[in-house]
Amino acid sequence: HLRDDHKDGFLPVSEFVTEKAQLEAKIRALTAPVALPTFKVASANLTLNDSISVNFKVNKDVYDAYENVYAVITFGDSVITIIDPVYHEEDNQRYYFTCPNIGPHRMKDTISITLYGTAYGQEYTNTVEYSIYKYCSNQINKATAFKTIATDLLNYGAAAQIYANYNTDNLANAGIDQSGASASLADPVSDLNLTYATIENPTVAWKSAALYLESRVNAKLQFETDDLTGITVEFVMNGKVFVVDQFEARADMDGRYYVYFDNILPNQMRTPFTATVYRDGVAVSNTIQYSVQSYVVGKTTAGTALNDMLIAMLKYADACQAYFG
Which of left, alpha, beta for 269 (phi over 0: left; psi -120 to 50: alpha)? Predict the structure, then answer.
């Protein structure tokens, strides 16, 4: 080891040993693992849209401290791998790993998430099991301001289970305190208007308006045309425009097509929207007005699976409107 003090020759053995020990100490200090935050899912919450999503949240310091962080979510037969979670600065700097599109009849089904990551050559995992039922039960037991929504949501889920004949021996609202539930339902009002706005000589005709109720709440409108070329449907709700260009052919009738409007939030089930068919940007149909509550008109007498579900759905919607505005 040559001297580095501008003197000729080599270091004496004693000085070499001392410098070597000091250098090794510095290297150990530089390469020693830093204290890592606990590798875990921090919490979970719900997103309430036309269907329901569960967001599993990971703190930013955890996500940044580990490498190759990703999650595998298992829900029934579905397996979702998420490598690019959505960052939410406004929510205490957390990353969301989301299980989307959960139908109301599956509120008691278990969602399993396993979080994966590495640090300093070591692999880390954290597995959490959750459900919509568990989240709502916690809110009800804490008597939060969300209690009415949580209770009405589980009642809606139980009614949806019965309607779908799904896991009916384990209903979502079994044993749930009902003191926070909505006591009554304001009568729904029909917003249906087949000629909300008209044009001369429309070449596309509206044929029906209903709801799609299998795994989410969508408006399901039917129109008739002999040519789909250049066709789009423009939905307008609260001044916001949604353009749809995907249609489902009706199997038993040529020239009939279904179009779905899936941008209806639960607090908008009593809000009317309009729909107009365009071809290459030019209106070719009259404008129809409809709403979710329109479908419920005449179906509020309890005692049938469909009616009971619609009543519970609209109570949940009204609770959301009261809470979120």
Answer: alpha
Q: Is the pLDDT of residue 242 over 60?
A: yes
Tell me the three state secondary structure of residue 16.
helix
The per-residue pLDDT for range 260-280, each reduced to its tens digit, is 999 899 999 999 999 999 999
Burial group, residue 279, by CB count within 10 angstroms (0-12, 13-18, 19+):
middle
Q: What is the pLDDT of residues 70-116, one digit of tens each?
A: 999 999 999 999 999 999 999 999 999 999 999 999 999 999 999 99
Q: Are 170 and 262 in contact (CB under 8 A)?
A: no
Q: Which residues pair with 10 in a beta bridge?
A: 2
Q: Are 53 and 100 in contact (CB under 8 A)?
A: yes
pLDDT at 171: 98
The amino acid present at 306, given as its one-letter code, is L
Phi, psi values for residue 291, rounded to 5°: -160, 165
- Beta bridge partners, 249, equal 257
- Residue whose C-alpha is closest to residue 314's, from 193, 161, 160, 166: 160
Contacts of 198 (CB under 8 A, 6+ apart): 286, 287
Q: Convert the pLDDT of each residue in 243-264 to its tens digit.
A: 999 999 999 999 999 999 998 9
Query: Which runs of E-coded beta strand occur in the chain?
Result: 43-48, 52-59, 67-75, 78-82, 86-88, 94-102, 111-119, 122-130, 193-197, 205-212, 218-224, 231-237, 240-244, 248-249, 256-261, 273-279, 282-283, 287-290
Q: In what order do the strands lie in the sheet with 67-75?
A: 78-82, 67-75, 111-119, 122-130
Has residue 5 got a pLDDT over 90? no
Please tell me what DSSP assigns to residue 268. G
